[in-house]
Amino acid sequence: MKCNKIIFFLIVPILGIFCFCPLLYCQLEMLPTSPPAPVGAGARAHGMGGAFIAVADDATASSWNPGGLGQLQRPEISLVFSNFSHNEEYNEYVSNQGDCSISSEDLNYLSIAYAKNIWQRNVFFSLNYQKMYDFGRRIEYDRLVGESPEFGTMTEKINFRQEGSLYAFSSSLAVECVPSFYFGFSYNLWSDHVTKKSKWNTELKNILIIEDSKEVLSESKQSQEMNNFEGENWTLGFLWKVKQNFHIGGVYKTPFEASVKAEYRELSPYLPKGAIEETRNYEFCFPAKYGVGCSYRIKDFFTVSLDFTYTDWENFIIKDLDENSEYKLASHDFAIENITQRLGIEYIKLIKSIILPIRFGIFYDPEASVKKNESRNFYGVSIGSGITILNRLALDFAYQYRYSKGVNAHDLYVHIPNVPSKIDADVKQHFLFSSIIFYF
Fold first, then answer.
1. Is 18 helix (H, G, I), strand (E, B) or coil?
2. For residue 183, what pLDDT is reported?
3. Distance CA 360, CA 400 (A)
4. Total domains in the fold of the chain
5. CB within 8 A of 411, min separation 6: which ones?
6. Less packed terminus of the chain by CB within 10 Å, N or C?
7. Which string of DSSP letters, residue by residue, matches 231-247?
8. Nearest C-alpha neighbor of 279 from the set 230, 228, 325, 327
9. What is the pTM of this model?
10. pLDDT per position as a tens digit, 377-404
11. 59 in any annotated domain
12. Which domain holds residue 279?
């Protein structure tokens, strides 16, 4: 395994078959991860399309803008669950005769926030457990290899599956430095030893068969497990209440390096000993992230928020510590088209002691490309609602749809050479969030 790439040869050189038909040399190239998009916390924020930097007035502020924690008026406990599904639909050269979708359900966020008055300043503390990234992906399809008078039609069945997540424990603090100006920070500990869930695995199965008789000509299996993920970084944020109904916020997430151990296994009848096992050590370099936002509230029942964020994916690098080499997964400079833009609204209806919110959001959320100065254009929409009872209990729900059309397969780390046309895929992602907040 070089530079953390998994390179799989899909055509097994069987001499008897080569005598009857010239086969196309094919290769499926997969990386354990493409430049990942962070998973935000909370149903309320996602219902507003993730435009939450200048809102950030609940315990999930530690995820979006820790400076917003200073707005909290009382202690609270937050619990958020999420469901994520990912689907890829390829064009004719990689036909979807199988299943190219995967889904996962997990705890998205857990936090405890507490307020204290220190030196006549409101100070807020919170402890947080958060899902940061999801690596779920699946590709399953049949590919026509060729035909021969003796063997007939030969087909290769490919089944690729990737699962796993990264979690972090965070401790956050926010203080009202001067009236209407809040500053906060979070220390994020990324440790598989602590969370027991910061790992992911990749598996690929290849089966070459004769279609008419269903005879298996060859079968191989390759897998890689990434574990012992260890790293740490900081999140800094501020929130300024320019006016009572107009807020400005900013956030900075520091870059960091994380160590990872990879355990690779391969089973194939064509290997000298039938199997290969090796362990390698890698270092993942995660880039810095910057964000600014503003929000405007109309008569305490209607809020509009707008966020802009930029992630320096140019500096997302995987280093092979054993080979003293590195691989860069993205290649682009700072440009307007690489900035994520989010717009969210929240309308609140008050019925006696019950609050009924309606939320909506749209966003443009580009992902970095392996091609120089190009981006994968993702667009999305979200809706959400909930109920708050007696200012003691809040239940929120949100659905988010994220979509990109015509993503080049090189950006999905699927490569079939010698094909005359570009291989594209439509990527569809669905997110469901449900959260519950207890106020004290």
1. helix
2. 96
3. 10
4. 1
5. 34, 367, 369, 370, 371, 376
6. C
7. EEEEEEEEEEEEETTEE
8. 228
9. 0.83
10. 899 999 999 999 988 899 999 999 999 8
11. yes
12. 6-12+21-365+374-394+418-439
